[in-house]
Amino acid sequence: MSSQLWMLRHAEAVPHGVKPDEQRELTARGHEQARIAGAALLALGVELAACYASPKLRAVETAQGACAPLGIEPQAVAAIAGGFSRGDALELLYAHGDDEHVLVVGHEPSFSQVVHDLCGARVDFKKGGIAVVRAGGAAGELLALLRPRELAAIAGVAAV
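Predicted structure:
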């Protein structure tokens, strides 16, 4: 076993230009995507040591919706808001014991780059989607890439 980084891209938010970037909230569809992500994590039996989120409103709301059924309180981390890197991801993950699972909620394009930097994979990270990377040794391993419709199937609900 080894530590796992669960990365959830924020769900659908109001368009750019409507509000300052930090204040863009989730749409009704985005709130539903966040709720479904949490239901899928619960259905998968994922036990998280912690959840870290970008302080941008859309990421905070996504984290709150996804973590509510898991009984975890997300913590805002400024590094996730922009320029989030492999080093930042490993620092959050390794702050916990071996074999722990940590959820990070944030943004593109840094999330795709972190996946690539950890395991060499190129991914198309959808809003409300999850990538799971096992970290350990010199290279990580992409365990799963789940789009919102796959998360809905896991949760046993209709996709939004």
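Summary: The chain has a mean pLDDT of 95.
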